[in-house]
Design brief:
This protein is α/β, with parallel strands linked by helices and 438 residues long. It has twelve helices and 23 strands.
């Protein structure tokens, strides 16, 4: 595993900046009306208070609409502000001990990306023609529109040709530029769509100048460990665990979660996955769960299993939002946040306090980063597992039933979080309750 040492203590607060600051849905080409990236600064102390050690930013580079259609990888989106605003944000985050993770879209670009515009203007003779997978009509010349490979049928997203050396050179240049400006790592968007050989080359080159940088790839299906190994990246997104958490809670079927934890153990033998119960691409956990009260159980799992946890902004306040498969279908899960933490509704206070408690527990037990889980008790509605690494261990008890449940504690006697009455080697866990024991 290539992971930098500091990642062992990392807990990300993930923010989608364009939504967070209420930016326009599409770039207008006009100068920014406000330095909106600076609106994140009042929230940095909030992230620290939450217990986070890093800020994972969604796209901040110039783009056409949602940020994943990048047009200029060396410029901050005018809807967010300027390079100076970015530098200020990085400096303020660093002053508080917060790392910065950037979101890099290196599988595809927006149509306004300059090398693709060169192709459209100059035709098959353009110097950047090899950057893309193109299909030219007969007799094509300057101004002709080629067919091109896109991203999953989204024709406004132009896929890059990762077999072209100039594309690798470009991605290395982009990564090194922003790491040089103070970023600590990269989330690799749609990494699953890019050949592992491309990542392996880029990682080797970037690590030679930035050995302490962190790289996490977006993978949804498939063999995560093989992808991380072949691509030379540090981590992948753990969608399998995310799905098992909400699905097992909704179905009262802890056998699904137990199976996912077994799979998670196998991944931890190779690397520490990026774990989450919400992000910018999925329905919020409070809306995904049939019973929103079980958000607390989801958070317990997130912060007591191995991996690098990430909290999506608003989840720590119990925000709801449903992702829909339509134009603008992401808007509900990428909302505007108020100007400052003081403007948050008090309704979210208990969920925030719970996150603080669990993140505090996590940070006091940093060994959980590589902890494996051992299932101690398993039924449809009751799960007990031990998180263990070397000589360290915690016991986690989850009760989905509507009755109190008595569960063995495998020798753990102290209630570190949650509620349980412990005696004679067992714990009584309240109906729909949970506890973490040490």
């Amino acid at each position: 595993m290539n992971e930098p040492e500091w990642v062992q203590h990392a807990i990300w607060w993930q923010v989608y900046p364009l939504g967070f600051v209420g930016a326009e849905k599409a770039a207008t080409g006009e100068p920014a009306a406000a330095h909106r990236l600076l609106e994140l600064i009042p929230w940095l102390d909030y992230a620290v208070e939450l217990g986070a050690s890093g800020l994972a930013l969604g796209p901040v580079f110039a783009s056409e609409t949602h940020g994943y259609d990048t047009t200029d990888y060396f410029a901050i989106d005018p809807r967010l502000g300027s390079l100076e605003d970015f530098d200020t944000l990085v400096a303020e985050a660093g002053r508080r001990g917060l790392r910065i993770l950037l979101d890099g879209v290196f599988n595809h670009t927006g149509r306004s990306f300059a090398p693709f515009q060169q192709v459209l203007a100059q035709g098959p003779g353009a110097p950047t023609v090899a950057w893309f997978s193109l299909d030219w009509p007969d007799g094509a010349g300057p101004g002709a529109e080629p067919g091109y490979r896109d991203f999953e049928g989204h024709h406004h997203l132009v896929a890059l040709n990762h077999a072209e050396p100039a594309v690798a050179d470009f991605v290395v240049e982009v990564m090194e530029y922003w790491l040089g400006r103070g970023a600590d790592g990269w989330r690799l968007d749609a990494a699953y769509a890019v050949p592992s050989s491309f990542w392996a080359e880029v990682m080797q080159r970037v690590r030679s100048s930035h050995p302490d940088a962190y790289f996490v790839g977006e993978y949804i299906h498939g063999d995560y460990a093989a992808a991380a190994r072949a691509g030379g990246i540090d981590s992948t997104t753990q969608y399998e665990l995310w799905k098992a958490i909400w699905s097992s809670f909704n179905d009262a079927n802890f056998y699904e979660l137990a199976a996912a934890l077994d799979r998670h153990n196998a991944l931890l033998a190779a690397f520490a996955p990026l774990t989450f119960v919400g992000n910018h691409d999925v329905t919020r956990i409070a809306s995904k769960l049939d019973d929103p009260a079980l958000v607390q159980h989801a958070a317990v799992v997130l912060f007591t299993v191995g991996g690098t946890p990430s909290v999506y902004y608003g989840d720590e306040q119990g925000y709801r939002g449903i992702k829909e498969d339509r134009a603008g279908g992401d808007d509900d899960v990428r909302p505007l946040f108020p100007p400052s933490p003081h403007d948050l509704s008090p309704i979210g206070g208990p969920v925030f306090a719970l996150h603080q408690e669990l993140i505090g527990l996590r940070r006091r037990n940093a060994w959980l980063h590589r902890a494996r889980t051992e299932v101690l008790h398993l039924s449809n509605e009751v799960l007990a597992y031990r998180a263990v690494h070397d000589s360290h261990a915690l016991v986690v008890l989850l009760n989905l039933s509507h009755q109190d449940q008595r569960v063995g504690t495998a020798g753990a006697t102290s209630v570190l979080a949650g509620q349980a009455a412990v005696d004679d080697g067992a714990a009584l866990v309240p109906a729909r309750g949970w506890a973490v024991l040490g």
